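Entry 14. Structure prediction run on the chain below.
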Amino acid sequence: MLNDHKKGMTALEILLIMAVLGIIFAIVIPQFSKMKENQVLKNAVGDVSSSLNKARSETLASLGSSSYGVHFQSDKIIIFKGTVFSPSDSNNEIINIISPATISNVTLAGVSGSSGDVYFNRLSGIPNKATPNFITISTDSSSRIITISATGLISID
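Output returned:
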């Protein structure tokens, strides 16, 4: 007896499977990209916030009998010792912001720009710049604002 039934997949079945997989990937991959972007933004906000808190706490502890501050650039934040930022100081602690997140705006004492410095006064921990002080961190699709209050406390919107 001959068996006329061949086993295997037809070209139509393969095309149908490929079309279904294509639709699934077209829906799922953008969602993973959005999740990654949100996580990068969350990490950048955490890095900026913790850097500000570290500079303030080191100032309040009078570590090295000095004030500490934070210098902002679009792609990094730098914790510095003293009241004046010096890019060549070996004591600077550099924290890079991972792309696609950037520091898109720094508003210190009402003056906006793409970079700036803030340091904290010894004993009181208040920022040297009069409030309001805002740092905006952005990705392509969203942004978060970090606020430095008049007392030096950090909050995130």
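The helical segments are 11-60.
Filed with the rest of this week's runs.
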